[in-house]
Amino acid sequence: MSVLKVIEILADSKESWEDATRTAVAKASKSVNNIRSAFVQSQSVTVKDGKVEGFRVNVKITFEVD
Question: How many structural domains compose the chain?
Fold first, then answer.
């Protein structure tokens, strides 16, 4: 029987939502083992002078507890 836990990560990127998601998973994997999935709960952008400056994601990371 597996026990799974979910944590929430906020990440951003100047490139894309996909890059922000990859950043969230990469950062989480430095301190969390056995990551099984990532669910992008929401996406948003930051705007400066009428132009999109950055992409943000709120990601739920699911991992198996040892």
Answer: 1
- Residues 12-32 pLDDT 10s: 999 999 999 999 999 999 999
CATH number of the domain encompassing residue 14: 3.30.1660.10
Question: What are the two backbone dihedrals, phi and then psi, of residue 31, each rounded to the nearest 5 degrees?
Answer: -125, -5
**For residue 12, which of 55, 64, 63 has the smallest C-alpha distance?**
55
Give yes or no for a contact between 4 and 59, defined as CB atoms under 8 angstroms apart: no
pLDDT of residue 1: 82
3-class secondary structure for 1-66?
A: CCCEEEEEEEEEECCCHHHHHHHHHHHHHCCCCCEEEEEEEEEEEEEECCEEEEEEEEEEEEEECC
